[in-house]
Design brief:
The protein is of the alpha/beta class and 418 residues long. Helix content is 27%, strand content 21%. It has two domains: 4-136 and 348-417, FAD/NAD(P)-binding domain; 139-342, 3-Layer(bba) Sandwich (FAD/NAD(P)-binding domain), CATH 3.50.50. It has helices at 16-28, 42-46, 79-90, 177-188, 212-218, 232-237, 254-259, 282-306, 332-335, 395-417; strands at 4-12, 32-35, 62-63, 66-67, 97-98, 103-108, 114-118, 121-130, 137-138, 152-155, 169-173, 193-196, 206-207, 210-211, 263-265, 268-272, 275-278, 329-331, 337-342, 346-347, 353-354, 376-378. This is Putative oxidoreductase CzcO.
Length: 418
């Protein structure tokens, strides 16, 4: 029989979510271990580009008993500052992390609990927390294989700086937060940039004297729980509003970039050799993004009026550019495009979890991270409970709640055993 070290709790994933759970488990005196495939906070250290910075203000960084420590709460930490903050949090306690330890399988143990197999030994556990996030497999569509191999392809997870891209034009595909920031990164370097615009919404940055996220927090938007959301399925699947924290933070209006020379197209629909096809949805996607932008402004206006808040006024929104026609196909060679930068997201990978905690589409099923299968939990996913659940803002509340459930089950099990 395989020897297994037993722990009350095994946490899989050594990012901010896993270590936040560990922090509260340490306070409860529950023995546990964190199994991390790389090194703790790996994604922040290794999977970000050089000019990466937070999109939300520093004051939203609220790890357990360790809020943002710096002097610029309204600013936006850059990559090295983020990892310094995370490392400083880890130094406030002694998290039992095993690094370079890949979990290969989790199964239920006869009689209760779980078996956890890993590259550095096998464990048994009464309870298991999955804190691996949702960024395992970079998404690249199948038709990318049909593109002329002379055109370099890269996913955003591998992008670090413009110098990585060959001379010539780069087509950035995707307009979520990463896509628009990578587009700007290349544009500011004077590169020839093309952008395939998807249906992502956008947000104001500063509006009526304050950052839009400050207003939304004060308005209670970030306190809304998923069970109170009017359209929870849409909330979970919706792409985040794009803006940036770069150079002190600013909003991103793709129409302004078009005026500055960035070539805009609709959503990519196919590739064949050096040719790329697009849907005729550029103007619709720009309009939809602007509608989201305007709705946020209107919500803030309404809140200011309702509460008689003295705030500066803003000029009405105006569209500064619109496409003269919808381009539905280009030839990369004729356009001088020598590279594609994919920024259309990631998919989680749970193939190593052989436990009945998924729906028919392979998505984990839980309520506030607690699965129906006893002793099995998820944390660090968007809208686990609130908008901030997948971010620094909500991780303290989520991890504290989860450990309360873990501790209660551990106590109950101990009482039954005695």
């Amino acid at each position: 029989m395989t020897h297994r070290e037993h722990k009350s709790v095994v946490i899989v994933g050594g990012g901010q979510a896993g270590l936040s759970v560990s922090y509260y488990l340490c306070r409860e005196g529950l023995d546990h271990v964190i199994l991390e495939r790389h090194q703790k906070f790996h994604s922040w250290r290794s999977n970000r580009w050089d000019t990466f910075c937070l999109v939300t203000p520093n004051w939203q960084c609220r790890l357990p008993d360790f809020p943002y420590q710096g002097t610029d709460p309204e600013g936006f930490m850059v990559k090295d500052e983020i990892t310094d903050y995370l490392d400083a949090f880890a130094e406030t306690f002694d998290p039992p992390v095993i690094e370079n330890c890949e979990v290969t399988k989790i199964t239920q143990r006869p009689g209760g609990g779980y078996f956890v197999d890993s590259s550095q030994g096998d464990f048994s556990a009464d309870q298991v927390v999955i804190a691996t996030g949702g960024y395992d497999n970079p998404i690249v569509p199948p038709y990318a294989k049909t593109l002329d191999p002379s055109i370099q392809q890269m996913h955003s997870v591998d992008y670090r700086r413009p110098a990585q891209m060959p001379e010539g034009g780069t087509l950035v595909v995707g307009t979520g937060q990463s896509g628009v920031q990578l587009m700007e990164d290349l544009h500011l370097e004077g590169r020839d940039v093309h952008l395939a615009v998807g249906p992502a919404p956008r947000s104001p940055r500063m509006y009526r004297g304050r950052d839009a996220t400050d207003w939304l927090y004060e308005m209670g938007h970030y306190h809304m729980t998923i069970d109170k959301h009017p359209n929870p399925e849409h909330a979970v699947s919706k792409t985040n509003h794009y803006m940036t924290g770069r150079d002190g933070g600013h909003e991103i209006d793709l129409r302004k970039f078009a005026r500055e020379g960035v070539s805009l197209y609709g959503s990519v629909s196919g590739m064949d050799g050096s040719r790329i096809q697009f849907l005729p949805d550029l103007e619709a996607n720009l309009d939809d993004a602007d509608q989201s932008y305007v709705r946020i402004r209107e919500a803030v206006d309404s809140y200011i009026d309702k509460n008689n808040i003295d705030a500066p006024t803003e000029p009405a929104f105006e569209k500064v550019w619109r496409p003269e026609q919808e381009i539905t196909e280009i030839d990369c060679k004729k356009e001088g495009i020598t590279s594609i930068l994919w920024a259309i997201g990631f998919r989680p990978d749970y193939h190593w979890i052989d436990v009945d905690v998924f729906d028919a589409r392979g998505r984990p099923v839980y309520r506030r991270g607690v699965c129906k299968t006893e002793g099995f939990y998820f944390i660090g996913l968007g809208w686990l409970n609130t908008w901030g659940s997948g971010r620094f803002l909500g991780i303290d509340e989520d991890s504290r709640y989860l450990v309360q459930q873990i501790a209660a089950k551990a106590k109950s099990t101990l009482q039954v055993a005695s």
